Amino acid sequence: MKAGKLRRVVTVQGSTHTVNEAGTPVVTWADKATLRAEVVQQSTAEFIRGFGASDETVVVFRTRFIAGVTNADRIVFGGEAFNIREVVVTGNDRGLELRCARAG
C-alpha cells in the first residue's frame, strides 16, 4: 500500500449502549481512530425492498491495518456516517479494506 494513495481522512467510531433516565436504550458513538484512507469505489444502487424502492450508497475504503475494527463500528467520512458491512484484511495484516454503506 503506497502512502500517496491514502489521500482521505476517515474516523473509525465504535458504539456504546447506555440506558437513559426513562429506561430507553441510547447508542452513542466514540472515536476509536483517525486514519488516512483511499476511496476505492463509491456508487449508489437502487433496490426494491418490502417497503418500496430505496437508494443505497456503497463506499469501499482501503487503509493501513488497525486491530479491533468490526462490523459493529462505523466510518465517518466527509461529514457522513457509513456502516461497516465487511472488513477484509489484506497483505498479511498490512491493510484493511472496509466495505461500507451510508448510514441512515
Q: What is the overall silhouette?
A: globular
Overall CATH class: Mainly Beta
Please indicate the count of domains.
1
Strand order of the largest sheet: 1-2-3-6-5-4
- For the record, the CATH architecture stands as Beta Barrel
- Approximate strand percentage: over 45%
Q: Count up the helices.
A: 0
The run of helices and strands is EEEEEE
Structure description:
This protein is mainly β and 104 residues long. It has one domain: Bacteriophage SPP1 head-tail adaptor protein (Thrombin, subunit H, Beta Barrel). Helices cover 0% and strands 70% of the residues. It has strands spanning 8-19, 25-49, 52-64, 74-77, 80-90, 95-102. The chain is globular and about 50 Å long. The model has no long low-confidence stretch (mean pLDDT 85).
Short description:
The protein contains no helices and six strands. By secondary structure, it is mainly beta.
Q: Which key features would you list for this structure?
A:
104 residues; mainly beta; Thrombin, subunit H; six-stranded antiparallel β-barrel; 6 strands; globular
What order do the helices and strands come in, and which of them pair?
Layout: E1 8-19, E2 25-49, E3 52-64, E4 74-77, E5 80-90, E6 95-102
Antiparallel strand pairs: 1-2, 1-4, 2-3, 3-6, 4-5, 5-6
